[in-house]
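Quick entry, no commentary yet.
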Amino acid sequence: MAFSARTRPAAIQRMQAEPLDLLIIGGGITGAGVALQAAASNLRVGLLEMQDFGAGTSSRSTKLVHGGLRYLKTFDVRVVADTVQERAVIQGIAPHIPRPAPMLLPLYDEPGATFDPFAAKVAMDLYDRLAGITGPPYANTTLTAAAVRDRVPGLATANLTGAGVYLDYVNNDARLVIENVKAAVAHGATAVSHAEVLEILHDDAGRANGVRVHDHVQGGEFTVRARLILNATGPWSDYLREADAALDHTKTLRPTKGVHLVVDDSVLHVPQPIYFDSGLADGRMIFVVPRAGKTYFGTTDTDYRGDYRQPRVEQPDVDYLLRVINTRFPQASVRLADLEASWAGLRPLIAGGDDYNGGAVHHLSDAAVAKLIAAVTAYQAGKMDRAHLERALAALEPAEAAAAPSTVSRGSALTTEADGLLTLAGGKLTDYRKMAAGAMALIRRTLAADFDIRAQDVDSTRLRVSGGDFAADAVEDAMTDFTALGVAAGLPEADAHQLAERFGGNTAAVLTHAAAGAAPGLSLAETASLRYCVEEEATMTPVDYLLRRTSALLFAADTIHVLADPVVAEMARLLGWGPEETRAQRQRLQTAYDESSLRALKRAAHQN
């Protein structure tokens, strides 16, 4: 069955036909990862998402599959160990999405500095050791202050002592979600977006066995039954638990808001991703990342109590980030008027406890930090072997966890509720595959014990996402080949390369949608991309396409005035919208653009 808007009614009918083995609520990266592994295990799987796939937290990250050097800021050693190893797994199963991008870590001699040169070198060496990085081109290096000034001319030089450079990976978070969902569907899962769960249903014994769902596309409600139900709704986990009348509704999460802002490269140019202390002695660190001719920076990290469905960028968020960026890049003088786009996302932080997959949520005491530095130094000097180093790290004693939002670790929790509802919450995007594997272990045990259903065991470290079926150690060669396919189909090389980068191994399938020619007002490449996303990626709205399938609203906002009407018109043709629906979809796109471009804040500033 195609994965499109046209097949959505049939997908809903299929989901209702008989009880599922597993129903997953939440189509972000966590739910998508579980759906893929469960479907590959030959289970009958359903996935429901109240918005578009990845529309919540999973498309609103810093867009890195990072190794977590920042967790060494608070010496969460086990978290870093897990993260760098998992990053390599993701690069293997989704080779067209995360890309290596060495990160620059400027060091300043100033109050509140996270790392001095010695501590930074210890942290980077430990980071490389945990990641298995042993030499060029990605082993960490150090730079003098003069070398940093040459590399990043606009960077503030007062109190600059040098910098470290270490390996990190840039990522397309929304694409990672949809490629997991597509792979799950290819393995037999049924996935439906824009379908909101209103109530958890129970059998006569009080066990959770179904859901009542509102259909935001067709209107009305439908019911789905399942042997097991997994709550993978991220920041909404507590809200979904409130839809289950059988549960104690004590809050388990501490959501925080993170904001990122986008400017043109001509406003703020950086040659590579940069990560530095805010310069405001507030304990925060900020990323600055170049992408597609733009530069984005963030994030904030503040406790959040507003609208979970649509967190907004507010004036204090902008004021804070502009203050930071203009402190570190004083010649740029970035203003509100320079901001082309923005996004705000919620992190589903767990208020307390350990990561069920092994990560710690506590920070090390001062004495433990001293032991850590001594152990790593001894290892580097050849006075300690790796086994002894690992035992020394495992024995380090934690201090009390800090209360500030920016210091709350990204642990995860897997809970079986009193009525059998499973809740998988917390975690980091980088850990999604491992979180899903942990959940699947419990799902297999429960299905076997309670329903005599034996799920096939799968090695999820080798389970490729859609578009990732090519050699992970030959990405550039693959991209060259995929680009050549586009050129052969009549696309300019730059457009063909963009499609290859976006769709990876699915590029040939995308190009079949170019055969009918370009849609009015769109290039042939954009036409093929749009048609493919509608027909094979369940793209229901222009916002789904321009914000998550392509990121144009974020990193090509200056072209939206050209793209908007042709994209809406072509989707109206493909999906059979009448004039009223077409106007409504155009207005929703305008609203999304206004929110991202901070139109209200700019208007208020102009009036003042």
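second:
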Amino acid sequence: MTNLHGGNDTINPQITLGVYQGSLAPEFDDEILRAQLVQISALLKANNVTKLSDGADYVVKLPLQTAQGEILVALKVFKRQSWLKDRFDRTHKSKAERSYIAARHLQNHNIGTPAAIAWLDHWENNRLIESYFLCIFQPAICLRDALTDIYYNARDNAPLMELLHLVAPEIRAMHDANFMHGDMGNQNILLPKNPDGSWAQPQFIDLNRVKITARPLTAKERAFDLSRPILPGNYLKFFKQIYCQHQDIPRDLNKYEQSYRKRFEFHRKSRKFRRPLRYLKNRHIPPTHRTYPDSKDYWLWDEKTAQPMIALSRKEKHRERFLRDLLVMIGQGLLALPTLYSAYKHLKKESFQREVVLKGRIGVALHPHDNYFSPERKLLSELGNPPVLIRFCHHEGEAIWNQTIQLIQQLHRDDIEVMVAFIQDRHAVLEPASWSAFLSKVIPAIANFVSHIEITHAYNRIKWGVWSMHELQALMAPAFELQNLYPKIKLTGPACIDFEYLPVIAALKSLPKGKSFSALSHLLYVDRRGAPENPQGPFSTLEKCALLKALTRISPQCEEKVIISEVNWPLENTDIWSPIVCPYVTPHWRKRASGETENDYANFMLRYIAIAICSGHVEQLFWWRLSAKGYGLVDDQNEFKPRLAFNALQYFLVRLGDATFIKKWPSAKNTYVLEFRNATQQILMAWTTKGESTALADFDAQKVYDRDGNTIKENIISEAPIYLVRALL
């Protein structure tokens, strides 16, 4: 890319300095600097010159004196060229001159680039003997190095999204200034910092391939630049949407970008075939910078939603999947289907047919970080101290593990039942010794204080770091080995997520010989279906729970007990705090509601709990989480303010926490009436999935309470459950 025509910037007139022709920026032009530039080739041999990059064209750092004092300069030395390239540059400007013109254009449009100082060329007989471009040295890392630090060290979504929001708008501004970079790899975007440590304006470097036009850039020209930054596919999509000012990516821009990206990837991969001698010569030389992770190894945590992010595009994920595992999983499912379906039909008929004691069956998950201890302990007390679930995350490190151990010991002293879940990351798979040491540290410290230990998490979602059954087995093995030393611990799993039961079957069959789970724990979300009664095919929450129970009945690798260890609904208008929106509010989510209202969330929660527990198919259920802005019972970003769902669950536990479910009453379509009894009262919990109903004429209630425990006068059943109470005779 060499077209510099069309720019309207004023370029400084050429000057002669000894054997050099070039230009010197007015703000740097003084006799002291000119005297040094005349002997620049000699200055490059001084001891105070530091080489910053390798290659035929390379960059050095050196101090130069000016009338205002010493300045640090980045000087790019361009290599000798073939006579054909020299002839081209004689007409179209040398790389040094093009870099200078490009830098001045960016400066004049307030686009980030190190301030240009000068360009100098030495020509002899139409051959370019020496060529230099000088600019102010910018102490900064490049985008490539910032990304590798995030991928390997921070492993955190937040700093990556911060970089995308920083860099993409600056590229857009550059393009809107009719400036096409032509070689905009991650290494050519510098990221300086302000004195307070925050990111300053990004700086574009390596400008000798630019194209400056008098007209707006075309989609094709913009796409060429956008095809060069390397990011995992899902983040690349966010990057382009931010570039498009948070709007949908235009079809032609996206098409050209993908085409150029494929071409560039092929060019990069074919380098060893195009230049075999150079490849053979350099293949044993270690790279000067750390390469990006393999596709399978991207793993970035998002603290706002307490989950890893989806880093790869769908195409990238499919490219890395293990087809053999998928075929084995399907085969195992087909073999299990006849027995499973028979057990399911039998259990479906048993729904709501036996009495269920509710005490200790409904719990909430806590967040074991020190700033949550005090407010969550108070909130837990207000709920009546139900069972709790607490996570241990491998990526968080020993300080938080120790805090969590102390919290569990305190809860045990307070006579609160605790279940724990061990959450893997990709590093746990790549470094099995680290995962084994993690379990060996924590399990002995909590073995006598917890009811169940859930081992691994959502392996059927690759964002959690597991790509194959072999990797899952490697993660589970140390826990079963520790069970030999601590036989009282009860392991549960495989903690798959959503209505995907083939991975459950495969995971159960992969357990070590002679080992089994004390319960089948599962993360049963239904948020995409809205209300818990809404079906997915023929399966609503009730049928999904029955099918889970059927899996335990037919599997010798699991006791006949189901624990739903995680469930919630995302809340609307919580944006990047929502588990379905994070880490970026895409144009899709700007156009539609991203979750449920607080009112619907509260209604759905109570109905889900009642269906799952009272059906008799689920032994225990934990709400994820007590405190979370995007999905919790309490808004942890608003001084732990309770939501409607907290009040609703609080009253549910007050009214029914010590009760026994008796039976499900016959009722009109879309209406649920569940009967409970405690030592002194008969209680009906009733709701309808649509509209309102008054179909309870045969029950002479002494008092009627709404969902939140307020007394009401009319027995009107709505989507918000009500409680009808009368004393036992």
